[in-house]
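Issue 218. Parser rejects a valid record. Input:
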Amino acid sequence: MATREEFAAKLAELEVALPAAQDELQARYDREVKEVWDVARAALPPSKKRKKKGAEEEDPLSSVTKMELSMPTYERLKPLADALMERRKALEEELRVLAESVKPVAGELSLTFDEVSESAYHTQGFGAGKYAQMAAEMRADTARVAGIPVEVLEEAREYPGSTRVTDSYGRSANKTYRVNRVVVHVMEELDFKILKFSPRPSVRESVRLCWARGVNPRVYNPWLPFGYEEKVGLDYFGRDLLDPKRGQPKVPSVEGQ
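Output the parser choked on:
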């Protein structure tokens, strides 16, 4: 059985040690490329060296030349960068596996789990608000599966620096936009991190809940095949035809079940 300490150790590697290694590799690349460019500039004849161009010096090396000079360093360090990316993917998968047994704990610490802006669904016209709200509910389903208290709050926010009251056509312009904020209540920040990697509702359950909430799941998943509902035993009102007594559960089923 995995422990919170194991999860915390893997998380620290993902969020602290790995970014530090990536930053160090980037600094090494920048340093070595600069050395190559400096050597190339020093080898130029005096007539080709830096010249004043207004208030700044003009670099005698063109962008194409600098790119060509940097390629050997790039090719030499690329395997190291690829290894770090593979390690990131492996850590994320390990954390997802650990989160299946290391359950988050509910508490009084309130944190924003996700946000969904109404503008993200502007193509739905007057239904944009509902689709944004239901998208937030889908994000909240992850917390519901884990047994964590969660709420979806609708907020109006002002556009940064917005002072206009009309748009370019003279029409009344909105100075605010609506956001649906998913707030979870956990014991500590580690529980919040565990929740981020916790299992989500299955595709079947997500589709069922979309219809139960009055929204089309293909807005969220355009690649959902035609006839999927009939194939998996769902109707278009969110009812489970394979288990009619089930109704709409308070807690969605988990991915893979």
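Fixed in the parser; the record now loads. Residues 111-161+172-198 form one domain.
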